[in-house]
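G., the chain you wanted modeled:
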Amino acid sequence: MKIFPLVVTGLFVLLAIGGFILFATFSAKGSSSSIGTVVIWGSVPPASMNALLEEIKKTTDIYNKVSYVQVPDAELSQKLVEAIASGSGPDLIILPEKDLISESTKLELIPYATISRRDFQDTFIQAGESFLAGNGSFGVPFSVDPLVMYWNRSLFADAGIAQPPTYWDEVADIAPRLTKATQNGTLQQSAVALGTWQNVTHAKEIFLTLLSQLGNPVITPNAQGGLSVTILDKPSAATVSPAESALRFYTEFADPTQSVYSWNSAQQPSHDAFTAGTLAIYFGYASELAQIRAANPNLNFDVALMPRIRGGGQGSYAAVSAFSIPRGSQNPSGAIAVAKAMTSASAQAVFANNANLPPIRRDTSPGKASDPYIVVFRNASLTAFAFLDPNPSATDVIFEHAVEAVTSGRLEVSAAVTTAAAELSALLGVQ
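Predicted structure as tokens:
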């Protein structure tokens, strides 16, 4: 295990001290006639946020000066830097967990005196805990969008398969029955899109799911306040690491010599293949349901939990966001009041219903409990995990290199994992 000596340790201490000062008057201000002006930035569609704002404003007028500005995720970081420098930044941002590490120096730490760790863990699902730090949290969890398994019911029925796979070994078992190719080997229908990278939608999230279920989180916080690279870790009695097992399993689906062969780099993106009806299993986000329906209204499909390791772990990657307070906020106490209001049980029910996503609170039922899809999404969210990503684009390239090194025959699986570990360590600045 290698340690990443982040300056985050000292930063957390400074932020914690500052946090107590910033939020010390929260209770008093929160009970006043108005919480003041609070500007929120985020990438959530305005329709969903407007419904949420209406919900928190309908019983009190203290939130009348709360406004929302939609900012694409790709532009948030640079705009935030510019806004903080000019003193015109927002009071709250909706921060994706994938950007937490890279953006943490721009955030105020919310001390546990304001929201205790116990209340945080009792209120929000486990995936939201990625925002917790030693002396507070970097945000109040707002949304969760878990990875799930979409499956084509018609293709399964044609192959004589009644149920979607529950375990990964079942995915391998049914792959030959769901894959069709011409005599010259051209794939006409695929069981599942695994084995390549560029044309597998959400390849990193799928690979991280395999790793997590095998017990390897890849990167974890350490006692020194930094990050540890754990991709090479393995149980003492194991002969191969979880990372090697995950990489070998993933790449076999693009190996023409394997019985599970069902995908290659010549295929169209997996999302498009699924909506076209030529891909039997697609791993996508819960939020993609409406897109899939719109792309092909005649597609006969259903949704299920991600496959899990037989006798091992379960759960899938989830995109998580939180209300975070950027440095330079003109109204931090008002911001935390708004964050609490917009993540209350009633507000979460409204947001979940409008966004067709499961609520991130443990005590909130899905708004459309009778909807068979939302029930699956809710169950997926309860076992979901988030990934501490130091640099989303860089880690994507690292994992892509590992996969391509194996599928091209350039490296053995063990060597590819070792190389990935070295690249992750270099990314984190570990010597």
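The first helix runs from residue 8 to 22.

Shout if anything looks off.
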